[in-house]
Design brief:
Length: 340
């Protein structure tokens, strides 16, 4: 669970019930500084002279705000729209895509006008009917660590549970899922957990939940009939990777409920980086040992107009066969969405 040292309430946020609820929750905490901002410009309130300092200070700040623009970003190809509930994350993973996207806005921002956001979701569903519309709740965040304060995910899950044509999904590296256990999801929400080997977590993730508690959380949600998926990413091909990823999959198999025929979705993504990401990561984590040597990688033009450095064709094909064989061996009911 996220424990901020500062909570900033943007202008207008206390006019909403959720904003006041969060305010009442934190005003009792003597070690949390509360700022009622007179505008929505939070950047100047983050202490620090440079990106390194601002990143570390910002990661301890919770911003409570109102989502002004209700034009949802597209989330192709994996979902139709991003659902803007939360942005940012308390974690400090060295490889995180948010480092590049939100480098200068490292704080966690929760939106309090959830009813307005859901009314907008309803409009998008109407536009696409009779087709299903899928909303992604974690495109720019990990929404779970703030759930104990907001219960937003629970409300959103129940909202989509009541719609005929709306589906919801999000991904997390955390285990604060208690409020979701009793939510009436009606099979319309998929919760995905992002996993990695003990070595990758120890070397490159900071302030995330352990892999064991993530899998335990997944098992508890599977018991409540949620659709469950696992994203194994980024796969890093270090000495001994096969043994470590095999052990991860074996533990996963063992810890998931054995008494139910659950279909597990898998997404496997190899490590890749862009020149921009490398530059940002080196500013925030100057001592990083993340493998980002361009000469050992293949340069590939991406669909969004910038290139990225991926593993070589031979490495990728070896990784692909490894995961195909191991997933087939261990999981009878599964859908492998992609191994890339
Ligand atoms: Fe990024 Fe996920 Fe790590 Fe948060 S937990 S810093 S969103 S990779």
């Amino acid at each position: 669970m996220f424990v901020p040292n500062t909570v900033i309430f943007e202008k207008g946020s206390l006019d909403y019930a959720l904003g006041s609820q969060i305010y009442d929750r934190f005003k009792k905490e003597s070690n949390v500084k509360i700022i009622e901002a007179s505008s929505n410009r939070v950047g100047p309130l983050i202490p620090g002279e440079n990106m390194y300092e601002k990143y570390r200070a910002g990661k301890k700040i919770l911003v409570v705000g109102v989502k002004k623009s209700l034009r949802f970003e597209s989330c192709k190809p994996s979902a139709h729209y991003q659902l803007p509930l939360v942005s940012g994350c308390m974690g400090q993973c060295e490889y995180c895509y948010l480092n590049t996207q939100l480098g200068d806005k490292p704080f966690v921002r929760v939106h309090v006008n959830i009813d307005e956001i859901l009314s907008q979701a309803e409009k998008y569903m109407q536009e696409r009917k009779p087709d299903i519309t899928l909303f992604e709740g974690a495109a720019t965040s990990d929404p779970i660590p703030v759930e104990p304060y907001t219960h937003t995910l629970k409300n959103v899950i129940e909202y989509f549970g009541n719609t005929e044509l709306g589906r919801f999904r999000f991904v997390t590296k955390y285990n604060d899922i208690d409020s979701l256990l009793e939510a009436k999801h009606n099979g319309h929400t998929t919760v995905r957990f992002s996993l990695n080997t003990e070595k990758v977590i120890k070397d490159y993730e900071h302030f995330t939940s352990s892999v064991k508690t993530r899998i335990e959380a997944a098992a508890r949600l599977a018991d409540k009939d949620y659709n469950i998926g696992f994203i194994i990413a980024p796969v890093l091909l270090y000495a001994g990777w096969r043994d470590d990823y095999r052990r991860l999959l074996e533990n996963l198999k063992e810890m998931m409920p054995q008494n139910k025929a659950i279909t597990i979705h898998f997404e496997i993504i190899s490590h890749r980086f862009t020149a921009k990401a490398k530059n940002t990561i080196l500013q925030i984590f100057p001592e990083t040992t993340l493998p980002m040597n361009e000469e050992e990688r293949k340069f590939k033009y991406g669909q969004f107009g910038y290139g990225k450095y991926v593993y070589t064709k031979e490495d990728l094909s070896e990784m692909k066969s490894f995961f195909e064989v191991e997933l087939d061996r261990l999981f009878e009911n599964k859908i492998i969405q992609y191994i890339i």
